[in-house]
Amino acid sequence: MKHAFYYKSKKVAINTLIHIFLLSVSVTCLYPLLWMIVSSLKTQDMIFKDISLIPHQFRLENYVLAWKEGGFGRNFFNSIIYTVSVVFGIVIISSMAAYAFSRLKFMGSKFLFIMFMAAMMIPIPGSFVALYVLLNKLHLRNTPIGYILCMINVGLSTSIFLLKTFFDKMPKELEDAARIDGCSKIGIWWHVALPLAKPVLAVVVVFNALAVWNEYILALIIFDNRQFMPLQVALQTFQGEFVTNYPLLMAGLTITALPIIIVYLLMQKYIVKGVTQGAVVG
Amino acid sequence: MKIRDAIENYTFVLPAVTIFSVFYIIPFIWVFQLGMFEWDGISFTRVFVGLQNFKEIFLQDSNWWQSMWNASYITLIALTFQNILAFMLALACDREIRMKNFYRVIFFIPPVLSEVVVGMAWRFIINDIDGANIINRMLIGMGFGNLAHNWLSDPNTALTTVALVHCWKGFGWGFLIFLAGLQTIPRELYEAARVDGASAWQSFKKITMPLMVPVMVLVAILTVLGTMQVFVLIVSLVGGEFAGHTSVPVLRILASMRGSSRFGYACAQGITFGMVLVAISFIQYRFSKKGH
């Protein structure tokens, strides 16, 4: 009896220590975010006087001010437009290519696929310089469409890889049946392959959406006009303009961070899957 | 019929290949081309200077090498502190423990946030504004008032502060990958070891560690590639267009392009940096093979 009690209390002690460790890291993770949200609800003169994490003030005016005067409404809308169109473009374009690489036979298919994969491996840190020059030449700089095309390109390789791996493992019977029924190749891709690929498509969608929403460098060099900028870049100009108005800045940060946190909490199953699969890519 | 078939097949890859050629391959080639010119990005004339830009990087550009050192320092802290923390957390979660999922969800919140948000939120917490710095307040409260100062503008602590915020943002990635790796280890191995009388430490050393080596190498490579190229976080955290004494290579490239309008030089810096990155990941990869 004593023996069993000893082991049990030892186990409880170890588990308590582990929980303390995990909890303290969790608190460190959450503290800055809570601080950010609580501060966004305060007035400028209260922000440093009252440092508790429980909000005593609810100044939603800060949000109204950031949204209207700070012009965040416009930038929020831009971010939504860019994210939706880039993700849509990537899903269509990369799933077509991945399907072709997996199922269709044509000359150079192996070479093209290897090219996409090589792009995933080779980092070119200065490429934004050349991209800037290129977009200038094509008269696409400072235009939303230029940014959207660039961002579609950024997500292509990884998405093609994920989808092709899935298509390779997918049984061919359904497609054969559709072909016998007289379905065209495009029809098979759209009606058979895509619906079956839903779980991977979810990973592709979530990851690219996160990447586009959080993207900074290309938006920085492509856009001169505040009216086209997505949130991340607008925040920087915003910080320059309202340098001392912390509640307003925190409201801006919360507006930028909240959609991503919500999407993450809803889709975290796919994110975990994507990280572990993406790790295999590397 | 055969030709129609081929055309149909090529239409599937045409959009991807077109976008890829225009927005990846052309810039890729241009980077190498521009690296040998002196050009301000606007005028019609470019001056061919051969390898002069590279010579300047290697022999004269002390700012560049300082930025390389800064990035390496941050990477070193990420490789050790961040990855050890991530591994310990993964080990703690890879057992029968309550609230496992809760922890997993929380730890991956910082990685999904943008670097701009993380940088600005932390700047607000640790930058010294009217003596409102929370960390300083805690230090004063605990009686270490003499340690309280502006962490980001003091050159002695700025880089370490940046590195720690970077670790805060990044450890969740390593944690998830480590956890996935740990979960692939068959439980029977541990049970067999326990039956044979192995202690927890022994089975950790003989089973967990050897099986986790490939995962560790992977995380190490991802950490190096990711951390060496960090810059948005630093700009948002430190402020100023090119982050002064906490500058990193990508910021130097950006500074050459936007600050001093030397497009050719910026490309040459990009090539140099890219080669360093490829070399590092190649060495790490080889090293891991030998270690086996």
C-alpha Rg of chain B (nearest Å):
24 Å
Question: How are helices and strands ordered from N to C of chain A?
Answer: HHHHHHHHHHHH
- CATH fold label of chain B: MetI-like fold
Spatial separation of the terminal alpha carbons of chain A: 52 Å
Outline the biggest β-sheet of chain A. Answer: none
Give the number of DSSP strands of chain A: 0
- Count of helical stretches of chain A: 12
| Domains of chain B (count) | 1
Class by helix and strand content of chain A? Answer: mainly alpha
Order of helices and strands of chain B: HEEHHHHHHHHHHHH
CATH class designation of chain B: Mainly Alpha
Question: How many separate domains make up the residues of chain A?
Answer: 1
Helix content of chain B: over 70%
- The CATH homologous superfamily of chain B is named MetI-like
General shape of chain B: globular
What is the CATH architecture term of chain A? Orthogonal Bundle
Largest interface (CB within 8 Å) is between: A-B, 84 and 88 residues
* Low-pLDDT sequence parts of chain A: none
- What class do helices, strands and sheet pairing of chain B give? mainly alpha
How confident is the prediction overall: mean pLDDT of chain A? Answer: 88
The CATH superfamily of chain A is identified as MetI-like
